[in-house]
Write a structure and sequence with these properties.
The complex is a heterodimer of chains A (84) and B (243). Helix content of chain A is 33%, strand content 35%. With 84 residues, chain A is of the alpha+beta class. Chain A has a three-stranded antiparallel β-sheet, covered by helices on one side. The longest helix of chain A has 16 residues, at 54-69. Chain A is elongated, with a radius of gyration of 16 Å. Chain B is an alpha/beta fold and 243 residues long. Chain B has one domain (3-230): Class I glutamine amidotransferase (GATase) domain (Rossmann fold, 3-Layer(aba) Sandwich), CATH 3.40.50.880. Chain B has helices spanning 15-25, 70-78, 88-95, 152-160, 219-230, and strands spanning 3-8, 29-34, 45-48, 82-86, 102-104, 112-120, 136-143, 147-149, 164-168, 188-192, 198-201. Chain B has a nine-stranded mixed β-sheet, sandwiched between helices. In chain B, strands 5-8 form a two-stranded antiparallel sheet. The chains are: A alpha+beta (84), B alpha/beta (243). The A-B interface holds A 12, 16-17, 19-20, 23, 68-69, 71, 73-74 and B 58-59, 62-63, 66, 94-95, 100-102, 104-109, 147, 149-151, 183.
């Protein structure tokens, strides 16, 4: 078993209103960052996972996302992996 | 007298309000069931109360949904038992996929504790039979994540099946944007499952059962439950049939 560092990035699903992102966007614009077109605020979860190999580490992280970490109704996620 | 089981999670804070509404106002039996229990014991209905279970970490209701007691609650619901989820309880029911959709952050980004106006959309349910059709209510909300969302297909399905039970309305009783406190799609404040035995709503009926506290508009919900459990009210048509 090896330890893997896994990053799960969760973001509000495209098309879904993201009030937090909207508030941040308007704050940025009020600071004269006029170039800001859109802001989406999500969350980053860092895990250390023990697994036989990268595939199984990815698989287990994906299972965690489906079961608990992300809500499929409102959120999208992606998983990045590196050996710890 | 009927027996109500009120599930208490770490962070639940409306469990005593439900207890009082059920015992002292509705005159029923009620007891708390700690979330680490795995059995409900003898009970006629289950209440998932409001609060901030597990500090609302990750997403409101996401962790509570996996509490040891939840398999028993879900089995009770599957067997047709009446389950009421208020506020955080509604969030738990959505996270558990007993009810469709999700409750996300209010569009104001603020925690909102205020009086809201609601319209009762159906009175032929186990939870609303003591209301008048189309009755306007004033109930309290107290939430930061009460903004109901679901995809268009799910929303259309909820509407077509008559499963939107409470809607936020304005002073004129219309479900307008002005009457919508938190951005909920189609002003949805409460929905029921297809079988008609599980209801979730964001406003707090248990806080509005005594005139002293400003409104008694929540009381008929508990009266409805008691009538249903007593057999004084029965669903006559198909469960999802519109009134």
């Amino acid at each position: 078993m090896k330890a893997y560092r896994v990053e799960v990035r969760i973001s509000p699903r495209e098309g879904l209103l993201d009030p937090e992102g909207k508030a941040v966007a308007s704050a940025l614009r009020s600071l004269e960052f006029d170039e800001v077109e859109e802001v989406r605020v999500g969350r980053l979860i860092r895990l250390r996972v023990l697994a036989d190999g990268p595939d199984t580490a990815l698989e287990s992280a994906d299972a965690m996302c489906r079961k608990l970490l992300a809500n499929p109704t409102t959120e999208d996620y992606d998983i990045r992996l590196e050996e710890a | 007298m009927k027996q109500f089981a009120i599930i208490t999670f770490p962070g639940s804070n409306c469990d005593y309000d439900c207890y009082r509404a059920l015992r002292d106002v509705a005159g029923q039996e009620a007891r708390f069931v700690w979330h680490r229990e795995t059995e409900l014991g003898a009970c006629d209905a289950v209440i998932l109360p409001g609060g901030f279970s597990y500090g609302d970490y990750l997403r409101a209701g996401a962790i509570a949904r996996f509490s040891p007691i939840m398999p028993a609650v879900l089995a009770f619901a599957r067997a047709g038992g009446l389950v009421l989820g208020v506020c955080n309880g509604f969030q738990v029911l959505c996270e558990a996929h007993v009810l469709p959709g999700a409750l996300v952050r209010n569009r104001s980004l603020k925690f909102q504790g205020e009086s809201v106006r609601l319209r009762v959309e159906r009175t032929d349910t186990a939870f609303t039979n003591a209301y008048e059709p189309g009755q306007k209510l004033e109930l309290e909300i107290a939430h930061g994540q009460g903004n109901y969302v679901a995809d268009e297909h799910t929303l259309d399905q909820l509407e077509a099946e008559g499963r939107v039970i409470f809607r936020y309305v304005d002073a004129a009783g219309q479900p307008t944007d002005a009457g919508n406190p938190n951005g909920s799609l189609r002003n949805i404040a409460g929905i029921i499952n297809r079988e008609g035995n599980v209801l979730g709503l964001m406003p707090h009926p248990e806080r509005c059962v005594e005139a002293l506290l400003g409104s008694t508009d929540g009381k008929p919900l508990f009266d409805s439950l008691v009538r249903s459990l007593d057999g004084a009210w029965q669903a006559d048509a198909a469960p999802a049939g519109r009134a």
